[in-house]
Amino acid sequence: MSLRHALLGLLVFRPGSGYDLLKIFDTSLGNVWPAKQSQIYGELTKLDATGLIEVTDEGPRGRKQYALTSEGKEEVRRWLSEEPAPRAQRNPMLLQTFFLGLLPREVAVERLLQTADAAAKEHDELVTLRDSVDWDRDMLSVCGRLVLEYGRRQRLLEEDWARWAADQLQNSHLGEPTDTD
């Protein structure tokens, strides 16, 4: 998946400005595909240049309303029909976890507990968001809730795992790391 396809997919449901699309990312897609304002606006410019979207209205302060072209709709259908690529997982937190044994035990345990606390906080924010939105307005909102729910459950899993991992390190009978200098 790419930002390009996420934006095209959103524009299938209704035309929108960069600001409109950014808000949808903030409330739903940001859990699985975060994007910054500059990335969204840059990609919209590229999509317009390739003819997959078009500017349908211009407002004050340079606000542009974008809509999907027939070529853009065809690209979304093509993308949705293709076989998903194998999922490459790069997780900086897990990479650091692999080497936590190089730190003093109490520091390593604290790092894991910080991960658990951050996941719990993010979970609570997603619950607040879930409870503040009418998820039955249209198919976009229904699917947005599916993505939000994935993020909520993922945060629960991360918190549970991090607390378990901290307990494993805390109760390990292995000694402290040795200095490799």
Task: Write structural notes for this entry.
By secondary structure, the protein is mostly helical. It folds into two domains: 79 residues, Arc Repressor Mutant, subunit A (Orthogonal Bundle); 79 residues. The chain is 63% helix and 7% strand. The chain contains seven helices and three strands; from the N terminus they run H-E-H-H-E-E-H-H-H-H. Strands 1-3-2 form a three-stranded antiparallel β-sheet. Strand 2 and strand 3 form a beta hairpin. Helix 1 packs across helix 4, helix 2 packs across helix 3 and helix 6 runs antiparallel to helix 7. It is elongated. The mean pLDDT is 89.
Main beta sheet = 3 strands, antiparallel
CATH architecture of the largest domain: Orthogonal Bundle
Top CATH class of the largest domain: Mainly Alpha
Please name the CATH topology of the largest domain: Arc Repressor Mutant, subunit A
If you average the pLDDT, what whole number results? 89
CATH superfamily of the largest domain: Winged helix-like DNA-binding domain superfamily/Winged helix DNA-binding domain
Q: Order of SSEs, N→C?
A: HEHHEEHHHH
Number of domains: 2
C-alpha end-to-end distance: 43 Å
Number of strands: 3
Strand order of the largest sheet: 1-3-2
Structural class: mainly alpha
List the uncertain runs.
none
Tally of individual helices:
7
| β-sheet strand percentage | 5-15%
The general outline is: elongated
* Cα radius of gyration in angstroms: 21 Å
Report the helical percentage: 55-70%
